Amino acid sequence: MQKTALITGASRGLGLQTSQELHKRGYQVILGVRSNDAGAKAVQTVGGNTQFVVIDVAESESIFAAAEQVGQRISQLDVLVNNAGIYPDEGVSILDSTREQFHETFETNTFGPLVVVQAFLPLLRKSPAARVVNISSGYGQLGGLSADVPSYCLSKLALNGVTLMLADKLRSERIAVNSVCPGWVRTDMGGANATRSIEEGAAGIVWLAAEAPHELTGKFFRDGAEIEW
Ligand code: NAP
Q1: What is the torsional sign of CA 23, 28, 34, 38?
Q2: Residues 6+ apart with CB under 8 A from 136
Q3: pLDDT tens-digit map of 70-104
């Protein structure tokens, strides 16, 4: 049976690249995008029998509507990549950060992935060995927190907490949940000076989504190697 994968934030950057790689590996890929136009464009880029679904991870209603639509198209979800993210406050001191900014960033980077897992759980449970891959960051490591990238760092630190708690809760159901840092990657988010190509950044995500031993769960990886929280 063809394996299935849903990738959020698949319109561009690491999400689009990961979608292309999983498609090449034979997965039926569903691209999570924020508009029909973005979906049509991304489907063309990936090709094959790729489909898209509109999903805004900052809105629970959008997430549950997407889960219902996807449930009408596939009978099980083998891979869920929580990739959608925002990076809104580089250069803002923690001393000047606002409650509103933390709220906005957490809605997308932290609560989004959690609610996506909750909404797609019925489909993940139908896979014999499902995997959830949360795209985190070295900025979310305890040793990597920057006081000048405040809401992003804390949102990824908390996302890693979500990974640990979901892994614990879902281990007995054979659903692996891990975090991965792609490194500093030349996307719209990472900028032109980043040290890695999109292909290099996506490689560790694809490994965790498709190749890593399934018993690995509740861990944080970069380049296929475990790293510290
Ligand atoms: P990107 O090029 O800026 O792409 C971000 C993606 O997230 C876009 O597809 C965007 O969709 C989507 N998105 C943003 N808010 C969303 C929402 N509320 N609902 C659904 N989709 C939303 O970023 P990237 O570099 O590929 O980053 C992907 C992931 O890797 C992020 O989680 C990021 O934190 C992580 N990461 C990146 C780097 C890096 O150096 N690039 C380093 C560490 C971690 P639209 O096109 O609709 O805006």
Answers
A1: positive
A2: 156, 159, 160, 163, 179, 180, 181, 220
A3: 999 999 999 999 999 999 999 999 999 999 999 99
Pocket around ligand 1: residues whose beta carbon is below 6 Å from it? Answer: 8-9, 11-15, 34, 38, 56-58, 83-87, 108, 135, 137, 181-182, 184-185, 187-190, 194
Q: Which of 190, 166, 184 is nearest to 222 (CA)?
A: 184
Beta bridge partners of 82: 134
Extract the tokens encoding 148: 């000048």
Contact in structure between 61 and 38 (CB atoms under 8 Å): no
Taking CA atoms only, the protein residue closest to ligand 1 atom 47 is 34
Specify the ligand 1 atom closest to the Cα of 139: 43
Q: pTM of the predicted model, to two decimals?
A: 0.99
Query: How many angstroms separate the Cα of 100 from the Cα of each of 62, 71, 103, 151, 203?
Result: 21, 34, 5, 10, 34
